[in-house]
Amino acid sequence: MPQPAVDVSDLVMRYGEVTAVDGLSLRVETGTITAILGPNGAGKTTTIETCEGFRRPQQGTVRVLGLDPVRDAAELRPRVGVMLQSGGAWLGVRAEEMLRHMASLHAHPLDIDALIERLGIGSFVRTAYRRLSGGEKQRLSLAMAMIGRPELLFLDEPSAGLDPQSRRATWELLVELRNHGVTTVLTTHFMDEAEELSDAVYIVDSGRVIAAGTPRELTGADARNTLHIVAPAGLDIHALAGCLPPASTADEPVPGQYVVTGDISPALVARVTAWFGEHDVLVESVLVERRSLEDRFLDLTGKALR
Amino acid sequence: MTLDLSPAPGAAPRVSMLCAQTLMELRLLARNGEQLLLTIVIPLILLIAGTQSSRIVDLGPGRPIDIIAPGVLALAVLSTSFTSLAIATGFERRYGVLKRLGASPLPRWGLMVGKVGAVVIVEIVQLALLSAVALLLGWEPVSGFTPWLWAILLVVLGTAAFGALALLIAGTLRAEATLAVANLVYVVLLVGGALLVPLDRYPDVAQSVLVLLPSGALGEGLRETFTVGTPPLLAIAVLAGWTAVAGFATARSFSWE
Prior knowledge:
Chain A is α/β, with parallel strands linked by helices. Chain A has helices at residues 44-51, 73-76, 95-104, 112-118, 134-146, 164-179, 191-197, 215-219, 237-242, 266-278, 293-301, and strands spanning 6-15, 18-28, 33-37, 59-64, 80-83, 152-156, 183-188, 200-205, 208-213, 226-230, 249-254, 257-261, 285-289.
């Protein structure tokens, strides 16, 4: 097996009484985008900052590009690009000035003007950092992470505060970076970001990995298990359920909207639509839906707000 | 303009990183009005006002300008190496600048070199300007080149002692607390730290404490150097002692975030 870009095993991190990370393990393959997905306070930032060398593991081991992020920091720093969750620039510094400064610390930085154009920084190049909007700060911070042409990127909530267009543009850029061989590890609490962008997802809660896999594996994309039917309200759902296979259920949660769950096979869809036909009811729509990562995430972490 | 996204990691040569960092610190300082007020304008006003000081405070026997000029040089060192450095570093820590740069190819000692470099350059400008103005106002330091070398040694030691104290505060307190403490210490030492007003003008009890403070050591040291030609050994020992203690405490306690 090739050496992973990031290898965390049994990491434990405590702040006083609070255990932020509780025996977390993850492995990031080179050249992939890996998302660490979890609710606020799940331990995502602590984990990623330990990989960045800001904290020493209290228990367990962390290897980044085969090196120890604390002991081998000097060797790792030029090879790793970091986007902090917030801050990281002087309040009085201008956007372009900050980028040029970061570029001056690297041997082969990206073309600054091209990067400015690509990330849409052009409209605020001469604006002081303190006057930038949240989304502008995020774009600058991403540019700062990329400018040194690192082989590995750690991005802590890269799309927080971005408008949908910027978010899309950021995703496209990250995919393009991956196509050029850059490995990316990002934290997020956006399900769609994890689902659409990443090759691997680690769902983290209370400092532990509670599920891991490709987005497809996690959502069980092959197991289509919900059928939505829109039809006139008030039909006899018990009769409908009676003609379905034993593991299936039928419900009408909202008048006129019927939901059938179970192993949604072509035969089952045919059976259900036939049932409506037998009752001389015109079905307005039939939709087979797979579960989203959001459903899976809520199943795993619970729906209660924390 | 093409964007080549393939990885090509590498640190810039050390010398260029250190130069870039120092220049960046200087640019940000120069952009900051309060810093210029603190480091140039206030010492300049005190220098000019000091020539008329016999009407305000009794500085003791001798020409006021000869007493006030070395004191103003000491004050300039305090403002740059302590107040200005502490405030800037405190806010860099607060806004994650130290953290972010700590993840860049610039080593952490390089960050400190950038700060020291910027402080030294500002001090050179301050001391050259203030000395020139003092000489124009009639300051007559003891003749010869050696007193200036002693003065440089005192300024270097004073910068080290105040700088270490600045980083001790900035690396442990919150940014707002650092701001308050740095300004308060500046005002207290300006008024009562034997910086501008000679030690022998203070009550006896106060003298024995003030002589052991870095402000007293630097102020008295510079005054004596420019009147008799050599500094008191005690001043050098006091500044070296503060540097060692504060430097050790800073190295132990400095938090980067």
